[in-house]
Amino acid sequence: MNGRLNERDPADLRRPFRYVLWAVLLAFSLLAVRLAYMQIVRGEEYRERSESNSVRLRKIKPYRGLILDGDRNVLVDNKSSFDLVYIPPRVMDIGPVIEKVRRLYEERGLKIANENPPSGKTRAFVPVCIERDISLAKVAVIEGHALDLPGLIVEVSPSRDYPEGEVMAHLLGYTGEISKEELEQAEGDHFGPGDIVGKDGVEKYLEPYLGGRSGMEQVEVNAAGRVVRSLGRVEPVSGYNVQLTVKRRIQRAAWEGLNGRPGAVVAMDPRDGSILALVSSPSFDPNLFRGGISAGDWVKLSRNPLAPLENRVVSGQYPPGSTYKLIVAAAALQEGILKDDTRFFCRGALEMGNRQFRCWNRGGHGWVNLHRAIVESCDVFFYQVGRLLGEERLARYARQFGLGDFTGIDLPREKKGLIPTAVWKEKRFKRPWHTGETLLTSIGQGYTLTTPLQLAVAYGALANGGTLWRPRLIRQIETADGRVIKAFPPERRGVVPIGEENLRRLRKALWGVVNEGGGTGGAARRPQGDVAGKTGTSQVVGETPGGRKRGKRYEDHALFVGFAPFRDPEIVVAVVVEHGGHGGGAAAPVAKKVIDAYFEDKAGEGGRR
Amino acid sequence: MRLDRGLWGNLDWFLLALVLAICLLGLVNIYSTGFSLLHDKTSALFVRQSQWLLMGLCGMVIAFFLGYRFIASWAYVIYALSVILLVIVLFYGHTTHGSQRWINIAGFSFQPSEMVKLTMILALARYFNDHPSPRSYTLKELLPPLAICVLPLVLILRQPDLGTALMLLILFVSFIPVVGIRWRDLVTVTAVTAVLVPMGWFFLKDYQKERILTFINPYRDPLGSGYHIIQSMIAVGSGGVLGKGFLKGTQTQLKFLPEQQTDFIFSVFAEEWGFLGGVILLAMFTLLVVWGLRIALHSRDYLGTLVAYGITALIFWGAFINMGMVLGLLPVVGVPLPFFSYGGSAMVMLMTAVGILLNISTRRFILQS
Fold it and tell me: Which of A4, A21, A188 comes nearest B301 by C-beta?
């Protein structure tokens, strides 16, 4: 060490150190004196205050905002939930208290609904919730015996009511107690343990608007924990109301159309991307989550192989089947591969090397042009077109239709789907791409995956002349007295690069699918002749790579995507019925129901106003 | 050199024992606060604090063996790193209770503002050691070290964290009596400060103004920031001479005190252990600080004096400001109680500092023997 020891004479340091030492001793003595003053001189007084101190801060939960549909029907309401709470006066066993409640209930023929009432030792004065969301009859029993039941109180807190139940579950989501992780991530300090927050769907997405702000109350409680009086109160602020674009009537029609079969339905206004209905089946009852879902119910929901908690409209990824042929056709028209007089001969299959690629119609369609190929959904025609187009060009067009990418809808857990290319396959499987795979891709089988919502958006662009909209679920956010504080205008994501003339030809073919003889979508036909659309069948087993071979049923998924009215489309509907068989048989009737409901709703509205 | 044998043979057992005793008392106390919380956080607080104490002990051992001369030779680099972390926190840190203080590194979430207290002390000690003044410093000569203090201070104020920023300033000022300043300059600075402080009022955030006003009269806002002070004073006072006993503090167990495990931890201790416990804890802190000053004075070189003095000042001010706040003598500014408050960053930083202190204390004997 370089001899810098003691640059300053230690003797020099003694003086300042002595001052510092005295200052420290003085400071700590001051604390000691203060401590003595508070604990010895005034100790008795403080002790009395702490014993009678019954003043505590209580959080007042706010009412969440209402959620309304496009016609201002209430989809999510608030109600008061009564919770039975016990405040133990000391450390004690909770068992006898539960027993007492049970006996009282039994006198009136009531039962404790809570599957697992609390048990074991309590901590002194720490409130224990015995039963959540009790009926008014029970409230009457408890309040009637208030004097015999010291410490038992009924707490009123706001809770959610979902009158539509399963029909709207995936769209609206549900609420629950804030989790530890959410608490840590929360910004600012207006969240605390025990707060109720949105957990899924719109409830979650719009939490900052719906949630409101907790109030505080300083209350004096007696030894039994009952509030004696209020000493001061900061009122909670209710959340804002939210109006959705969805229409209750159309939503119900879609739900009834699926009729309990697993699948998904989404309806959108192709003029601005407004979602009119969004149904995923099987579903769950969001009211189950009120006041905490019971363990039994949760296991039933989360372990169900049919995944009722999953929103199939945004996270169900299905091979698009023949509905994909429209994308192939659009690309081929635009690239000049298909001319007015292009025809291919279908004899029921196409040979490729030593493999045979079959058409769904084993007998063959004979000579077909584009119009007939779409109307009759000829596979061989599209094998030929796909081979000429190549998978790279096809993938490029598919992406421009918004496939293989998020649609940007305001719902959690959206999936991207998959548009395969040679590059992708090389990366994923370390294997080269085969022409055979191009053929499969051009009829929407193989690796290709799309969500029902993506199909609706893509067909929306076909229907509206080429505009790709971001699906819009929320119309506006408003105060309780109806003042709009935030509007969500439609959002254009892009324009598909298909000429107007080509789009018109495709739409005409789609009309043919539903309304011409030999068309596969006849089941969606209305007397007005105004529906256009495309059926699809997505194979569950067979060529589906890595597919759901372990599924209970091996039948194919049925798809239908269509729009109406044909001349000036106002609604586009995408339907998937899992294991429904052929699209024309299972899915098209559902779409028709939804379209019927749309026009009934429109007519009714005109009549009413 | 008899370094290695000497390092062990002359280990300052008294300092080590004293610090460990305070830490253990702190753990017991954290157990009590965790006990009352709902949602079974019971063990979580206690377990995590224990883990942090273990991490702190590792830091202590490492610092002890690296030695204060080696650490001080890197002082500017460490200081710069910690300042960079403060900048990162401003952009990427996450926010809790309205201020952005935390940063995630390798799965750990920590507060660079705690770390900077120690690195600033090291940088200041190094500076004063490298630039000794034959007599006393003039104001101009004090500008560079002031800059060392002000740079992180401004960054921390932006978070905003008034307590820590204030702490940095107080630590800097604490060096003055030891390094010396000209009388004339001292008078000037005092006068200017006396004028500027009232003006500073206008730069405070509303909640900070609120805290100061409430300090003057807690009953001004018994629902908001005054609630803490009132309940904390009731907790302390009701402890009486002998306290209510472990896990029996009603104020604590009934959760009259929100967030009691951090800045208001002393009120929990004073309620459950009473005046007796409180005075014993105070005596332990006093002993620790006096012992730290002794180490500083008897260090074998000026650098050791400065580092030991700075670390001692850190412990002293933490203890004094925090307890003063809980006892209603000082405004609520958010300074944790050293070795006691719940929090990993502070624990690791403090134990590392103790490791350095131990090293300085031990080296002294090596030179003289």
Answer: A4
Other C-beta atoms closer than 10 Å to the C-beta of B192 total 10
Burial class (CB in 10 A: 0-12, 13-18, 19+), B16: middle
**Beta carbons of A473 and A411 less than 8 angstroms apart:** yes
A-to-B residue pairs, Cβ atoms closer than 8 angstroms: 160
Q: Three-class SS string for A339-401?
A: CCCCCEEECCEEEECCEEEECCCCCCCEEECHHHHHHCCCHHHHHHHHHHHCHHHHHHHHHHC
For chain B, the helix, strand and coil percentages under 3-state DSSP, each to the nearest 5: 75, 5, 20
Minimal CA separation from A55 to chain B, in Å:
8
pLDDT at B7: 62
- Which pLDDT score is estimated for B189? 85
**Stated length of chain B:** 369
Q: How far apart are CA A363 and CA A380, in angstroms?
A: 12
CB-based contact A162:A286 (threshold 8 Å): yes
Whole-structure pTM value: 0.63
Read off the pLDDT of residues A425-469 as tens digits, 9 standing for 90 and up: 999 999 999 888 999 999 999 899 999 999 999 999 999 999 999
In this prediction, residue A229 carries a pLDDT of: 67
pLDDT, position B331: 79
Q: How many CA atoms lie within 13 A of B199 on its CB side?
A: 5
As a whole number of angstroms, the distance between CA A411 and CA A453 comes to 12
Q: Beta strands A241-244 and A67-68: pairing type?
A: parallel
Chain B residues with beta carbon closer than 8 angstroms to that of A189: 96-98
- Does domain A57-189+196-211+240-244 bear CATH number 3.90.1310.10? yes
> The complex's ipTM?
0.89
* CA separation for the pair B73, B122 (Å, rounded): 9
| Cβ <8 Å between A47 and B297 | no
Domain over A248-282+310-608 is classified CATH 3.40.50.2000: no
**Comparing C-alpha atoms, which of B144, B229, B225 is closest to residue B179?**
B144
Number of other CB atoms surrounding residue B60 within 10 Å: 24
CA A461 and chain centroid, separation: 24
Question: What pLDDT was estimated at residue B343?
Answer: 85
Tokens representing B266 are: 């002393």
What lies within 8 Å, CB to CB, of A50 at 6+ separation is: B234, B235, B237, B238, B250, B251
* The predicted structure's pLDDT at residue A515: 95
Low-confidence ranges of chain A (pLDDT < 50): 1-6, 542-552, 607-609
Residue A2, chain B, CB below 8 Å: the answer is no
Stretches where chain B sits below pLDDT 70 are 1-9, 34-43, 94-100, 104-109, 211, 214-227, 248-261, 365-369
Angle at CA A472, nearest 5°, toward A471 and A478?
A: 170
- What does the pLDDT read at residue B217? 64
Where do the domains of chain A lie? 57-189+196-211+240-244, 248-282+310-608
**Is A57-189+196-211+240-244's fold the same as A248-282+310-608's?**
no
With both helix axes pointing from N to C terminus, report the angle between B225-238 and B206-216 in degrees, rounded to the nearest 10: 40
Q: Residue B34: its chain A contacts at CB < 8 A?
A: none
Active site residue A29: no
Of B176, B84, B180, B70, the residue nearest B126 (C-alpha): B70
> Which amino acid is residue A68, in one-letter code?
L
**One-letter amino acid of A172:** L
- CA torsion through residues B225, B231, B236, B237, sign: positive
Q: What is the pLDDT of residue A608?
A: 45
DSSP string, B286-313: HHHHHHHHHHHHT-SSHHHHHHHHHHHH
Please give the Cα distance from B11 to A178 (Å, whole number).
Answer: 50
